[in-house]
Amino acid sequence: MKFGVLVNEGPYTHQAANSAYHFTKAALENGHEVERVFFYHDGVNVGTRLSVPPQDERNLQKDWTALAKKHNIDLVICIAAAQRRGLLDENEAKRQGKDANNIAEGFRISGLGQLIEMGIKSDRLVIFGD
User: Which of 5, 16, 78, 115 is the catalytic position?
Assistant: First the structure.
């Protein structure tokens, strides 16, 4: 089965981002496909390279980056939600006149078209968070 995964909640305010990670990992381990994970609303905060959780806590950004690298998963951050929350890749930082970017390795910024495409191409769209 081919799954699309939508993450709507941030990494440390709700269980959704962690549950999405474990679901995706389990699906892949059981022979299913996950081509893309789309991060929307506060879920975009998973993709910042500047978060520094305490050593005894999970680091979802690093977990997602490693999983995406191992399984060739497209990690897409919604551009509008990201800009509202101060997440910018190198191109958006330049375009907006900002002097820094903070998107983690393995993540990319794009629009809602990527979410729609994921929904069309997937057998099931699984949503984590409100």
Answer: 78
